[in-house]
Amino acid sequence: MTAPGPPRITIHEVARKAGVSHQTVSRYFRRVDSLKPTTRAKVEAIVVALNYRPNPVARSMRTRRSGRLAIVLPSRPGLLHSQFLGGASTIAQAEGYQLEIVTLAGDARTRAERVLELASSGGVEGVLSLSPLDLDPSRSPVPIIATGDYDDELRSQGDLADASVVRNIVEHLASLGHRDFLHVAGPQTYTSARNRVRVYETTIEELGLTSHGVAEGDWSGKSGYEAVQGLPAGSKVTAVIAANDLAAMGAIRAALERGWRVPDDVSVFGWDDFDMGRYASPSISTVAVDREAQGHEAIHKLLAAVRGEQPSLPSHGPINRIIIRESVGPAPRRD
What we know:
- By secondary structure, the chain is α/β, with parallel strands linked by helices.
- It has three domains: 12-52, lambda repressor-like DNA-binding domains (434 Repressor (Amino-terminal Domain), Orthogonal Bundle), CATH 1.10.260; 63-154, 3-Layer(aba) Sandwich (Rossmann fold), CATH 3.40.50.2300; 159-289, Response regulator (Rossmann fold), CATH 3.40.50.2300.
- It has helices at residues 11-18, 22-29, 37-50, 56-63, 79-94, 108-119, 165-175, 191-206, 221-229, 245-257, 275-279, 291-307, and strands at 68-73, 98-103, 126-129, 144-146, 180-184, 210-215, 239-242, 267-269, 286-289, 320-323.
- The strands form three sheets. The protein has a four-stranded parallel β-sheet, with helices on both faces. It has a four-stranded parallel β-sheet with strand order 6-5-7-8, sandwiched between helices. A two-stranded antiparallel sheet has the order 9-10.
């Protein structure tokens, strides 16, 4: 026989150790504003010490609620989307909910009908869609929130496609003496890639700098490699701004093969803060995108809708943050 596991910690035990009623503990998990800060802190300390999580089955029997939320995607998520989903999952679990990831194929209208079926099944209390849905939310018995952070092919939109930080990158490189630039772009079917080209070209022109072109790329290391290898002999380019860290790594490899030192002869900037870029030689200057914070914000909006509350204002700062590493340095001196 298998030995029975330890008994499940109950809300009554949490209440007893915190010296409060079980109703107070329930109010703590429902984030009732009238709870005193000292009481909230007392309950939270016991919850953390006991690693307590509300029992979703018991809650469902008591309230006829499932304790489950769903995130729907138009296709299978990639590495970058996992950061968003991880952030959403962390908040959902902390709030006592189970989070399901559901992939729905088809166009916006087809996905909308399937989302309505999911919302009407009684199995979830709310649905979060990362892409637009062609539906009237009033048709659903539970809240449906569409964030608009991604399009039908999970390509970044909205804040995740913001490219304003490209101006800061160009300005930083210009402050180091760089005057001749190359941009290795991402696929122009992506809003984020188009925005970065636009900000790059506008900033170069406004600052009186020289662009030696916008190389077409596809987010791959090969595109960065070919862009730098394709520069003419005697090229004056001293700064390369790549679409992502993979393209930046390809650009660095091509520069080294041409006998250019990085960053002594040419500086290279990436985007996305891939883990491999931190440990490359040289380590890659990049833009960290806080997709986890986006996930937090999105799930908080859904939870507010489920509870009939007003969503709180975002607590995070700018979604993009520049990180300067070894691949960027002063422009080389030319006699």
